[in-house]
């Protein structure tokens, strides 16, 4: 297969793999190539992205290749994460968030087994909103990412700690997810908050006008 085509395939595979990335061995198995060639392809792809000034870069994190954004672009990503159009949680995101909140630390695969559907987009949305974050790696094949909630999650739901999460009581495993998601919905209704209230502290807040 053409060398450039192989680089293109690797870029697509890493995009699909998301935050978990793919190890050299995983890429070698998928492409049926030796590890040394994978190393060369990954290095050349990294150089291509760098030379073309692309918005993503190829990095090796915890033994896996990942496509990541540039740290210097972080201020723009923060603006996107806290923009009004991205401040509300969808049903899928809230359902995923309830799973992480009550079962953390937890992997994407475990989340998807509980929900019964793919959850990549919901997880990415929650990470971009700073409601969940990577808290470690599971001791399993591929070392998948473990997700947990953030301090912003506690602020968002007005919780002093995770111990203050609403107690679903004695419900069956089948009903637990629906019950926990509903309780988070109710918590939001009580608080009537949006993510706009949790913009980065460095961002100046407009002064209130004095009443006349």
TrEMBL record:
Subcellular location field: Cytoplasm
Q: Which domain of life is it from?
A: Bacteria
Q: Which UniProt keywords apply?
A: Cell cycle, Cell division, Chromosome partition, Cytoplasm
Q: Known Gene3D superfamilies for this protein?
A: Winged helix-like DNA-binding domain superfamily/Winged helix DNA-binding domain
Q: How does it assemble?
A: Homodimer. Homodimerization may be required to stabilize the binding of ScpA to the Smc head domains. Component of a cohesin-like complex composed of ScpA, ScpB and the Smc homodimer, in which ScpA and ScpB bind to the head domain of Smc. The presence of the three proteins is required for the association of the complex with DNA.
Recorded hits in NCBIfam families, A to Z, give: SMC-Scp complex subunit ScpB (TIGR00281)
Protein purpose? Participates in chromosomal partition during cell division. May act via the formation of a condensin-like complex containing Smc and ScpA that pull DNA away from mid-cell into both cell halves.
- What's the family? Belongs to the ScpB family.
Q: What is this protein called?
A: Segregation and condensation protein B
User: Which organism is this entry from?
Assistant: Paenibacillus protaetiae
């Amino acid at each position: 297969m053409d060398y450039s085509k192989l680089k293109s395939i690797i870029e697509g595979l890493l995009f699909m793999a998301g935050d978990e990335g793919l190890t050299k061995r995983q890429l070698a198995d998928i492409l049926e190539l030796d590890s040394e060639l994978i190393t060369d392809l990954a290095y050349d792809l990294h150089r291509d992205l760098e030379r073309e000034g692309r918005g993503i870069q190829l990095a090796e994190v915890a033994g896996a290749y990942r496509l990541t954004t540039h740290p210097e672009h972080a201020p723009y990503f923060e603006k996107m994460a806290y923009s009004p159009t991205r401040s509300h949680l969808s049903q899928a995101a809230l359902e995923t968030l309830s799973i992480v909140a009550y079962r953390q630390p937890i992997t994407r695969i475990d989340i998807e087994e509980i929900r019964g559907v793919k959850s990549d987009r919901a997880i990415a949305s929650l990470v971009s909103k700073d409601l969940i974050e990577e808290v470690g790696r599971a001791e399993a094949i591929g070392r998948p990412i473990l997700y947990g909630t953030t301090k912003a999650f506690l602020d968002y739901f007005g919780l002093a700690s995770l111990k203050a999460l609403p107690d679903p009581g004695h419900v069956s495993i089948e009903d637990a997810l629906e019950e926990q998601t509903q309780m988070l919905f109710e918590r939001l209704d009580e608080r009537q908050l949006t993510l706009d209230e949790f913009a980065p502290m460095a961002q100046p807040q407009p002064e209130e006008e004095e009443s006349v």
